[in-house]
């Protein structure tokens, strides 16, 4: 009887929090629409005579702002999926057409670049988001959204992390956090996104300050409906001692996974390993030709994310496959291994 009452209370809290998250998204959309109606007749504000040092900023996929993110004082925007022919000066010119730009930074990647634009006032930043998101530069649509400092997230390195799979594409960080925040020690929630397509990879991670809350969430929410799918919940590491083993999901690792190159494989395919629970094999590319299966096994074993069933390496082609016992272990191996080095080369997972 008490268990049923507990489940009803959790369900009611989740529904209320989901409604609050939806209301916040609607309010942000209304504010952005209002900003679009503003004209450029307002005089620009120049509170800083020189360029301010940019804070440590991480990209946010469109529609995937962090839980509790407050854009009311934000003047910076993130620009993703930038064509390689776009230069710093061109990026500055495009965003200068919206309002006075304080600073502009372009970070080049192998297949596409991303950058950050700092405005002198929030109004211009909001107008840039609604006006330029989806606009094409050299035939490639850019993604524009609020940028935020990584210090706005709580440090979860010592927290207990659970894996959440089978997420529907509409679930954002905020929605995932709202669903689990019925448990008071829930500290963070992150959905894995593919920056190039803007689509969810179909899974995420939720952090808890308290181990018992994490275990209770797994027990009570595994198989429950979030959106139009039944989610799967399990420990993000083998066993419940995630904090002791430091199997943390830190900000840097998340950004590397989101922005990491795919090595020729389309990891956003809905039938790919991240989204299909039947897949337990991880593709590993860009391997040095002198690396063998024992070297790859040793590396992935050191990640400590699960039980390795089989390792196959095609040395002359520079790639291989690592098969895990479960889908959750394979997904976590992708998250933790992306961008790391084997034999002096940065692997593509």
Automatic annotation (TrEMBL):
Flavoprotein listed as a keyword: no
UniProt cross-references to InterPro entries, sorted A to Z: RBM42_RBP45_47-like (IPR050825), RRM_dom (IPR000504)
Keyword RNA-binding set for record: yes
Gene Ontology molecular function: any one: mRNA binding
Pfam family name, one: RRM_1
Keywords: RNA-binding
Domain RRM: from-to ranges: 75-149, 160-238, 280-349
CDD domains: RRM2_PUB1
Domain of life according to the entry: Eukaryota
Record protein name field: RRM domain-containing protein
Organism: Zizania palustris (Northern wild rice)
């Amino acid at each position: 009887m008490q268990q049923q009452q507990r489940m009803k209370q959790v369900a009611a809290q989740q529904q209320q929090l989901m409604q609050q998250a939806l209301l916040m998204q609607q309010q942000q959309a209304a504010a952005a629409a209002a900003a679009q109606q503003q004209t450029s007749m307002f005089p620009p504000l120049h509170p800083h005579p020189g360029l301010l040092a940019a804070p440590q900023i991480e990209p946010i996929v469109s529609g995937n702002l962090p839980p509790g993110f407050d854009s009311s004082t934000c003047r910076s925007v993130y620009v993703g999926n930038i064509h390689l022919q776009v230069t710093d000066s061109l990026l500055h010119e495009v965003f200068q057409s919206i309002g006075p730009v304080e600073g502009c930074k372009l970070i080049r990647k192998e297949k596409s670049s991303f950058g950050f634009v700092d405005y002198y006032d929030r109004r211009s930043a909001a107008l840039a988001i609604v006006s330029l998101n989806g606009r094409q530069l050299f035939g490639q649509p850019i993604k524009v959204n609020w940028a935020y400092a990584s210090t706005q997230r709580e440090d979860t390195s010592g927290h207990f992390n659970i894996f959440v799979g089978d997420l529907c594409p509409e679930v954002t960080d905020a929605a995932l956090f709202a669903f689990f925040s019925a448990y008071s020690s829930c500290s963070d929630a992150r959905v894995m996104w593919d920056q190039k397509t803007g689509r969810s990879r179909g899974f995420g991670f939720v952090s808890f300050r308290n181990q018992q809350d994490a275990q209770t969430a797994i027990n009570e929410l595994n198989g429950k409906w979030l959106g139009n799918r039944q989610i799967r919940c399990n420990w993000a590491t083998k066993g419940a001692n995630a904090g002791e083993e430091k199997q943390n999901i830190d900000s840097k690792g998340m950004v590397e996974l989101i922005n990491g190159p795919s090595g020729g494989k389309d990891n956003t395919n809905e039938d790919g390993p991240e989204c299909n629970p039947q897949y337990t094999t991880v593709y590993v590319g860009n391997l040095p030709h002198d690396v063998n299966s024992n070297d790859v096994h040793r590396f992935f074993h050191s990640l400590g994310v699960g039980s390795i069933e089989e390792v196959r390496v095609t040395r002359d082609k520079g790639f291989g496959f690592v098969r895990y016992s479960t889908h959750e272990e394979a997904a976590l191996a992708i998250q933790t291994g992306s961008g790391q080095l084997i034999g002096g080369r940065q692997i593509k997972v």
